[in-house]
C-alpha cells in the first residue's frame, strides 16, 4: 500500500512557524506518511494530497495573511480532505498551560473547511528578529523560543494516527 501524501504548509514572517511545520513534517514521515513541507504562498493546488496541515504565525491578534490566503485560494479542495490548522504565537508558556482558542479568522476557516482540529503552539523571537516591534518585545524580556517540540511531536503523531488508523 502506498503511503498517504500529506501537505504541511506554513505562513511565516521570521521563520518560527516554518520550524514548527518542519517538525510536523519530520514526525509524519517518521510515522510512515509521505509528508512535504511548503510555504503557504507556494500552494496552488492541493489535489495531489490526501490531507493538509496549515499553520500561520500570529501578529497583533491576526493569523498570517499567507496562511489565510492559502486557505481561501484552496478552499474548494480543502473542504474535501482532512485538514488540521495551527497557529504559532504566544511568547510565554501559556500555550502549554491551556488550550488557546483560534483567533476569529482561523475559527472561520475551521468552520468553512470543516477542519478537524486547531492548536496554538508557543512562538519564538530572538534578539535578532527584525522589526521595531520585535526589538521592543525583546527589550521587554519577551525574546525566547516557546515552540514546545514535545507538544508539536505529540500533535503530529495524533494526525498520523488519524490518517493511518482504521477508517
Ligand atoms: C510585532 C509582533 C506581534 C505579535 N503579535 C502576537 C499576537 O498577537 N499573538 C501571539 O500569540 N503572538 C504574537 N507575536 C509572537 C509571534 O507570533 C511569534 O513570534 C511567532 O512565533 C512568529 O512566527 P514567525 O517567525 O513564523 O513569523 C507577535 C510577535 C511580534 C514580533
Give the gist of this structure.
With 167 residues, the protein is an alpha/beta fold.
> Unreliable stretches, pLDDT < 50, 5 or more residues?
none
Shape by Cα distribution: globular
What structural class do the secondary elements suggest? alpha/beta
CATH homolog superfamily: Flavodoxin domain
Associated small molecules: flavin mononucleotide
Describe the largest sheet.
Answer: 6 strands, mixed
Ends apart, CA distance between termini: 15 Å
What does this entry look like structurally?
The chain has helices at 16-30, 65-73, 75-78, 94-97, 104-113, 132-139, 149-164; strands at residues 5-11, 34-39, 51-59, 62-63, 83-88, 117-121, 124-125, 144-145. The strands form 2 sheets. Strands 1, 2, 3, 4, 5 and 6 form a 6-stranded mixed β-sheet that branches. A two-stranded antiparallel ribbon has the order 7-8. It is an alpha/beta fold and 167 residues long. The longest helix has 16 residues, at 149-164. Helix 1 crosses helix 7 (149-164). 40% of the residues lie in helices and 23% in strands. Helix 1 (16-30) links the parallel strand 1 and strand 2. The two termini are 15 Å apart. It has a single domain, classed as Rossmann fold (3-Layer(aba) Sandwich), CATH 3.40.50. Flavin mononucleotide binds next to helix 1, strand 3, strand 7 and helix 6.
Question: Which features does this protein show?
Answer:
40% helix; 167 residues; alpha/beta; Rossmann fold; binds flavin mononucleotide; six-stranded mixed beta sheet; globular; two-stranded antiparallel ribbon; 7 helices; single chain
